[in-house]
Design a protein that fits this description.
The structure holds 2 protein chains of 2 kinds.
Chain A lengths: L7 H7 L2 H22 L13 H28 L2 H32 L8 H22 L3 H15 L2 H11 L19 H40 L1
Helix pairs in contact in A: 1-8, 2-8, 3-4, 3-6, 3-8, 4-5, 4-8, 5-6, 5-7
Chain B lengths: L1 H33 L5 H6 L7 E8 L5 E3 L4 E7 L4 E6 L12 E8 L4 E10 L7 H10 L6
Parallel strand pairs in B: 4-6
Antiparallel strand pairs in B: 1-3, 1-5, 2-3, 3-4, 5-6
The chains are: A mainly alpha, B alpha+beta.
Chain lengths: 234, 146
């Protein structure tokens, strides 16, 4: 099925961009209203916990996007459909942006909460490594002019780097870290109140819509670029 | 066309399993270096030398926080409910520092189960609650925390 994906699907998806972007903006406004005004402050952290509504979706999507890059790398390796390497290439800067957001917002939250901007614990360090992996992946594409070779090396990096994803996810359970363990996936109650879960979920939806819009825009630009380059060669 | 696809899958599986095993070995051997802090019980097991730098984490023991006015030194006890360690610290405590809450201190072991901290970090837990909910939970006796 994946081998049958054709460029025409990108053209079709591109038509939905105005609709997607309007939904993104509306969801962001609703999400920010709930995050900043409608929801209560935390019993210990006070208002500084509101940064969580940006931090947590950014962190989730930074892991998800790398997982998608790894998957597209695996399928590219098997099927050699050029659209799969285009997908990885389109996703990488978006993932880097989300990782950067998660690191920065975490740092801003860490200063008033922990008393430090940064700690070299397993969670923070593995997240920084994820950011560097994204940068390496992006730089690979820019530094290798032969795109067939670049596809191969980038796919290898995408697959090897994936090992970092479970390390990030479980670092807080495997080792003593300054970062707290996961709130949402914990089964025992109470971890997060419903009044705080609602803004978090709306913000996650907004980030997700933003991610899909950016992805479609980027993959369309890259596929057009590919076609232009082919025309210039022949 | 069929054969290369099969070969690629085999190559991929071999490559992935080699990486997986390699990373497992690395992580397993790095275990002690990957933890950010030791618990008071860990400290009993490793023999600390005097003047050794160390990070210790746990709960600030109930009623243990004392402030010495004339030397402006804070003293408190970190516990993990099995063992304890005494901390002395000269500086500003973070806002979220409180008894019965998580803390990580960085400092020098000065012997006799005592640490002279040069950094105190509040460790936040994974609970997010508005104050009213905490009050209600406390009334029902469902809240284990402070």
């Amino acid at each position: 099925m994946i081998s049958k994906i054709r460029p025409a699907i990108i053209e079709k998806a591109d038509g939905y961009i105005p609709l997607l972007l309007s939904f993104t903006i509306i969801t962001f406004f609703v999400g920010l209203y709930f995050s900043l005004i409608e929801s209560p402050a935390d019993y210990i952290q006070g208002d500084s916990m509101r940064i969580m509504y940006i931090h947590v979706p950014s962190a989730w999507f930074s892991l998800m996007i790398y997982t998608l890059i790894a998957l597209s790398s695996v399928f590219w390796f098997i099927l050699r459909n050029p659209l799969l390497s285009l997908a990885g290439r389109s996703l990488a800067p978006i993932g880097a942006m989300f990782t950067f957001l998660a690191l920065i917002t975490g740092s801003i939250w860490g200063k008033p909460t922990w008393g430090t901007w940064w700690a070299w614990d397993a969670r923070l360090t593995s997240m920084l490594i994820l950011f560097f992996l994204y940068l390496a992946y992006i730089l690979l594409w820019h530094s290798i002019s032969n795109k067939d070779n670049a596809s191969k090396i980038a796919a290898a990096l995408g697959i090897i780097g994936f090992i970092n994803i479970p390390i990030i996810k479980f670092s807080v359970d495997w080792w003593n870290t300054l970062h707290q363990p996961a709130t949402i996936s914990k089964l025992s109650t109470p971890s997060i109140d419903v009044s705080m879960l609602i803004p978090l979920l709306i913000m996650t939806l907004a980030f997700g819509l933003f991610l899909v819009s950016l992805f479609i825009i980027r993959i369309r630009i890259l596929s057009l670029e590919l076609r232009i380059n082919r025309k210039m060669i022949y | 066309m069929r054969e290369p696809v099969k070969q690629r899958i085999i190559k991929l599986l071999i490559g992935a399993s080699i990486i997986f095993v390699a990373v497992l070995i690395i992580i397993f051997n790095l275990r002690d270096n990957l933890i950010y802090f030791y618990s008071p019980t860990d400290l009993v097991e490793i023999n600390l030398n005097n003047n050794q730098e160390i990070r210790v984490g746990g709960l600030v023991a109930d009623n243990s926080l004392k402030y010495e006015e004339n030397s402006s030194i804070y003293r408190f006890v970190i516990t993990d409910e099995k063992n304890i360690i005494n901390v002395e610290y000269r500086g500003i405590l973070p806002n979220l520092f409180a008894e019965n809450k998580g803390v990580v201190v960085e400092g020098i072991y000065s012997g006799a189960n005592n640490i002279i901290a040069n950094k105190v970090l509040a460790k936040h837990d994974e609970n997010y609650m508005p104050p009213e909910v905490i009050d209600a939970l406390q009334k029902e006796g469902k809240w284990q925390g402070e």
